[in-house]
Amino acid sequence: MRTLPRAVEEIVHRYLRRLDELAPGVVEGVCLIGSVARDDFHAGASDVVNAYWRPWLARARRPLSKLGVAALGAWAPAWGVLGVARQRFTIDTGRITSKLGAGTYARELFPSRWHRIIEECIRIRTDGAGPSRYGWPPTRRRDALDFMEYVIAQELGPER
């Protein structure tokens, strides 16, 4: 096994310590193997989903929480839908893509039942160009959170 140069190791440790100060528990919950620079990065799927996406989804499902209210806007649904799609892309291909690339991948991968929310989130991510596919924000919120739950369940099964 190769070791990192000492300077790189120190920078990584400082970064992870600071991250742990700002978001306790995240450092334990995320497993990164490989290197983006060497194009062999792989995220620990269960770690990322369990440490970030499941709690994010649970908070967004509470309608009066900050995230629950934010999910009525445009940003939160796009972040969640394209975020879990991006995670799925990495799990399936071993590569990293943009959120827009993940949206395109998701549109091809998932059943047509989900295309409306995926296309809406792609629209939001591209500066909200064109009319919304949703006339009522709570419907978009519901579809976004249901899609996220569907993708997470496909990746890891029901919540443990």
Short description:
This protein is mostly helical.
Strand content: under 5%
Q: In this structure, how is the largest beta sheet organized?
A: 2 strands, antiparallel
What is the residue-mean pLDDT, rounded to a whole number? 82
Secondary-structure-derived class? mainly alpha
Number of β-strand runs: 2
Strand arrangement across the biggest beta sheet = 1-2
Q: Please count the helical segments.
A: 8
Distance between the termini: 34 Å
- What is the CA-atom radius of gyration, in angstroms? 17 Å
Order of helices and strands: HHEEHHHHHH
Uncertain residue ranges: 29-43
The gross shape turns out to be globular
Q: Fraction of residues in helices?
A: 55-70%
Written overview of the protein:
By secondary structure, the chain is mainly alpha-helical. It has a domain at 53-156. 65% of the residues lie in helices and 2% in strands. It has a two-stranded antiparallel ribbon. A hairpin with an 8-residue loop joins strand 1 and strand 2. Helix 3 packs antiparallel against helix 5 and helix 5 (75-93) crosses helix 6 (99-109). It is globular and about 55 Å long. The two termini are 34 Å apart. Residues 29-43 have low confidence and may be disordered.
List keywords for this structure.
single chain; two-stranded antiparallel sheet; 2 strands; mainly alpha; 160 residues
